[in-house]
Amino acid sequence: MNYPSPSSGGSLPSTLQRLLRTVDQFLKVETVGAVLLLIATITALVWANAAESSYTAFWHTDLTHGRGPELLARPLHFWVNDGLMTLFFLLVGLEIRAEAHDGVLALPRQAVLPVVAALGGVIVPAIIFIGLTSSDPALRRGWGIPMATDIAFSAGALTLLGRRVPQSLRILLLTLAIVDDIAAVLVIALFYSNGIAWEGLVLAAGGAASVLGLQVSGVRQVVAYVVPGFVIWIGLLHAGIHPTLAGVILGIMTPVSQASASNPLQEDTTPVSRLKEVLHPWVALAVMPLFALANAGIGVRDLGASVAHSPSLFGGVLLGLVVGKPVGILLASVLVVKSGAAQLPPDIRWRHLAVLGCLGGIGFTMSIFLADLAFPPGDLVTTSKSAILLASALAAVIGLVLGRCALPNPTAAPGPWPHPTHRPGG
Question: CATH for 26-192+242-260+267-406, among 1.20.1530.10, 3.75.10.10, 3.40.50.720, 3.30.565.10?
Answer without folding.
Answer: 1.20.1530.10
